[in-house]
Specification:
By secondary structure, this protein is mainly beta. The protein contains five helices and 34 strands. The protein has two domains: 312 residues, Sandwich (Immunoglobulin-like); 222 residues, Immunoglobulin-like (Sandwich). Helices cover 5% and strands 37% of the residues. Strands 24, 25, 26, 28, 31, 33 and 34 form a seven-stranded mixed β-sheet that branches. A six-stranded mixed β-sheet has the order 10-9-14-19-16-17, with no helix packed on it. Strand 11 and strand 12 form a beta hairpin. The structure holds 2-acetamido-2-deoxy-beta-D-glucopyranose (NAG) (8 copies) and copper (II) ion.
Length: 601
């Protein structure tokens, strides 16, 4: 029997701003992460959750740019685990990227592995999460990389303290079963129980009269707070607001951006934003809220998820006698949230951000493109057991399995060996790997909403047929690669937060409808594009990114919606070694976990 850890929340107080090795020599930041199952109580239920060091969210990794991070992973859970350091560029340390079966075989129960990498050439907020299946719902935490100089490139606004704001979900289902359900086409009953801010569901959730705790941010009038936003949710993009306050967005995916003032942040799974908030409202209490958005019907609908927390002014004497205008029992003001089906606010939010090309850490955008890919992102069906035909909704024929794809191939992870090991040993070491097509095998009206409806009564469409394979796309060292991502309306019309490991990319443009080079190339921002590791490809729209393939290794490239990645919306970008040892991936660390052949169920 495991211990009952009823109220184990990691307590995210405001973290001291510039500690560690600021201004000094590069330091080593060392942690031991013990992965274990604990019971956590929410909504009248003790739920067994897999967490690091008993905490949900997990412990923060705080470093200064240039530091070395060492994390000893001790797996005391019954599951195979890897930890991915999301957004860390991992230059020449692909072995530490933690993508299960892509860069390493998983760490078996009762085994350990030590991750070693540098946080170099990037400053801001990133995060870590497990990358063997869906367990990242509770296996995640923030990574904060502070500037070596001790000061930020935004004058007049040096923040007072850092405030991690990790948006997540609380699940009360057996996540391993949910994962299995997704890889078999998904089940409509598999939804989270609620949304969370820093592990708290907030007071919109209650059960039998027990109201859930809010995350509380204590502020002092006039001070500036650096909200470090992470979307660690499996399912949804979120809108985040604080009543009575405005934000200045200054960073995205650990890159500085041109400061952008707004009262709402749209954050997709995998994205991070650094947001300054000045406590300049009348001393009081204000709700902060995170609301999940989703495409409207006929897309399948999930319940509305809202978590809220509280911004509490120090000099608001709500319990004492002094009058302060907001003590008379009224509830704190709630921010006016966008509609849950509003997909325009996120389009404008992302479209309004631009990079900060004058910052010394930001690379130059390259003009000449060596490789061009056009990747359609959609859903299709396969027939079980390679049968020639199947149908939807039961009957005599076998049930079609819904999958997600890139360019009409649904990704399947290898089972015998990781793709990076196969790359290292040459000739794919016998893994059955195929080249990801550079464009969709056939063109259709990708964003025609007539393709969306799906359900037991809707017959299989010809366009749905797809296949599964382990795909890879190989790039010469130092190649400049441009990728057009096209979201489609196939059986759904979700946006797609596309995440590339090991590289940041410039986001050159986004738009609605079908991408058309004749119209859209001239809209590219070649002056101050955003540099990101995750691009939110709009619903029924497209986005264009460009990056330099200069980090040798095998890098996962996938949608960060958990249901899409589990269903196969993924591939691997392999980058060749360069001509010198400085451009060559070293051999694997000696303790890299060995693969244990999987029993087929
Ligand atoms: C959670 O607790 C409530 C009330 O006791 C119960 O009705 C519900 O079925 C529980 N849910 C799960 C997933 O255990
Ligand atoms: C891990 O070790 C514990 C304690 O020695 C043991 O009870 C458990 O069965 C082991 N688990 C596995 C999967 O080997
Ligand atoms: C998985 O799918 C089955 C069949 O649709 C469903 O009964 C079950 O509730 C789903 N989720 C879990 C966690 O088992
Ligand atoms: C508890 O939740 C229900 C809906 O689930 C709501 O009607 C009720 O007002 C809530 N109670 C409290 C005290 O928040
Ligand atoms: C910026 O946002 C405004 C609305 O806030 C919108 O009208 C405009 O189109 C957006 N710009 C871009 C490039 O998306
Ligand atoms: C694609 O579908 C949309 C929506 O039905 C329609 O407006 C558009 O004209 C179509 N485009 C083409 C090229 O057929
Ligand atoms: C997708 O691939 C399947 C299987 O190879 C093929 O039958 C189908 O025609 C392809 N569909 C499209 C739209 O290219
Ligand atoms: C990489 O490519 C750029 C642009 O094509 C070129 O200027 C540079 O010399 C190349 N660097 C190496 C190490 O090959
Ligand atoms: Cu990731």
């Amino acid at each position: 029997m495991l211990p009952i850890a009823a109220a184990l929340f990691s307590f995210y107080a405001a973290v001291a701003l510039l500690g560690g090795s600021a201004g000094g020599q590069a330091a080593v930041v060392e942690h031991t992460f013990v992965v274990k199952q604990v019971y956590i109580r929410h909504l009248c239920n003790d739920t067994l959750a897999t967490v690091v060091n008993g905490q949900f969210p997990g412990p923060p990794v705080e470093a200064t740019e240039g530091d070395t991070v060492i994390v000893h992973l001790v797996n005391e859970s019954p599951f195979e685990i890897t930890i991915h350091w999301h957004g860390v560029k991992q230059r020449l340390t692909c072995w530490a990227d933690g993508a299960g079966m892509v860069t390493q075989c998983p760490i078996q129960p009762n085994s350990t592995f030590t991750y070693r990498f540098k946080v170099d050439g990037q400053e801001g907020t990133l995060w870590w999460h497990s990358h063997v299946s869906i367990l990242r719902a509770t296996l995640h935490g923030i990574i904060i990389i502070r500037p070596k100089s001790g000061s930020y490139p935004f004058q007049n606004h040096q923040p007072h303290v850092d405030v991690p704001i990790i948006i997540g979900e609380w699940w009360q289902r057996d996540l391993m079963k949910v994962d299995k359900n997704f890889s078999n086409g998904g089940s409509f009953s598999d939804n989270p129980a609620g949304a969370t801010i820093n592990g708290k569901l907030g007071d919109l959730y209650n059960c039998s009269g027990v109201v859930e705790d809010n995350f509380v941010l204590n502020v002092e009038q006039g001070k500036t707070y650096m909200l470090r936003l992470v979307n660690a949710a499996l399912f949804s993009e979120y809108y985040f607001k604080v009543a009575g306050h405005k934000f200045t967005v200054v960073g995205a995916d650990a890159n500085y951006i041109t400061p952008y003032t707004t009262d709402v942040v749209a954050i997709a799974p995998g994205e991070t934003f650094d947001v300054l908030m000045v406590a300049d409202a009348p001393p009081c209490r204000y709700y902060m809220a995170a609301l999940a958005n989703q495409p409207p019907a006929p897309d399948p609908q999930i319940p509305v998820f809202v978590s809220r927390g509280i911004v509490q002014y120090a000099n608001d004497d709500t319990t004492g006698a002094a009058a302060s205008g907001c003590r008379d029992g009224r509830p704190p003001p709630m921010p006016e949230m966008p509609d849950q089906h509003d997909t325009t606010t996120t389009f404008h939010f992302h479209g309004n951000l631009s990079g900060l090309p004058t910052h010394p850490l930001l690379p130059q955008l390259r003009g000449r493109v060596d490789d061009r890919l056009f990747i359609s992102l959609g859903k299709g069906t396969i027939c079980p057991g390679d049968r020639p035909s199947c149908r939807r909704g039961g009957g005599d024929e076998a049930e079609a399995i819904e999958v997600a794809y890139m360019n009409n191939v649904s990704f399947r992870l290898p089972e015998r060996m990781s793709m990076l090991e196969a790359r290292q040993y040459g000739g794919n070491a016998g893994l059955a790997v195929q080249e990801l097509p550079a464009r969709p095998p056939s063109v259709f009206n990708f964003t025609d909403p007539a393709l969306i409806p799906v359900g037991p009564g809707v017959p299989l469409e010809k366009i749905e047929a797809t296949r599964k394979a382990t795909t890879v796309r190989r790039f010469a060292h130092n190649a400049t690669v441009e990728v057009v991502f096209q979201s489609t309306a196939t059986m759904q019309s979700d946006s797609n937060p596309m995440h590339l490991h090991g590289h940041d990319f410039f986001v050159l443009a986004q738009g609605h409808g079908n991408y058309d080079p004749a119209k859209h190339v001239r809209t590219y921002n070649l002056v101050d594009p955003l540099l990101k590791n995750t691009v939110q490809v709009p619903r029924l729209g497209w986005a264009v990114v460009r990056f330099v393939a200069d980090n040798p290794g095998a890098w996962f490239m996938h949608c960060h919606f958990e249901f899409h990645i589990a269903m196969g919306m993924a591939t691997v970008f392999e980058v060749a070694n360069g001509a010198t040892p400085d451009d060559t991936l070293p051999p694997p660390p000696p303790d890299l976990p060995k693969c244990i052949p999987h029993k087929k169920e």
